[in-house]
Specification:
The chain is an all-alpha fold and 110 residues long. Helix content is 74%, strand content 0%. It has a domain of 69 residues. It has four helices and no strands.
Length: 110
């Protein structure tokens, strides 16, 4: 009986043999990530956008504390808000364009 289980395990019919083979095959494949130029772009983009949204938030707080009302807050941050919102929209469109032809991948497919 033990010999039959050992034979089945070595053939991939049980004992997790098939899983180990699939894991080895997927483990040997190298995942393709962004190159160094794309990584530098993403880091710079994220730093600039974070700083921009921080400027907008500080501007909102300062305008609110100065006026004591929220009625004219938009006008105090209108230009930087439009600039950084446009930057965020352009990044979404750029990402969609560069990844638009790819098929979605599912983690459970082997």
């Amino acid at each position: 009986m033990a010999a039959a289980a050992a034979t089945a395990a070595t053939k991939g019919n049980g004992g997790g043999g098939a899983r180990a083979g699939a894991g080895e095959a997927s483990g040997s494949r190298k995942k393709k990530g962004p190159g160094p130029l794309a990584t530098a772009y993403l880091v710079i983009y994220n730093v600039v956008m974070t700083a921009g949204w921080l400027v907008i938030a500080v501007g909102l707080v300062r305008a609110y504390l100065a006026k004591g009302s929220y009625h004219s807050l938009y006008y105090s941050i209108e230009k930087p808000l439009k600039f950084f919102q446009t930057g965020a929209l352009l990044e979404v469109l750029r990402n969609k364009r560069s990844h638009g032809n790819e098929k979605p991948t599912h983690r459970n497919e082997e």
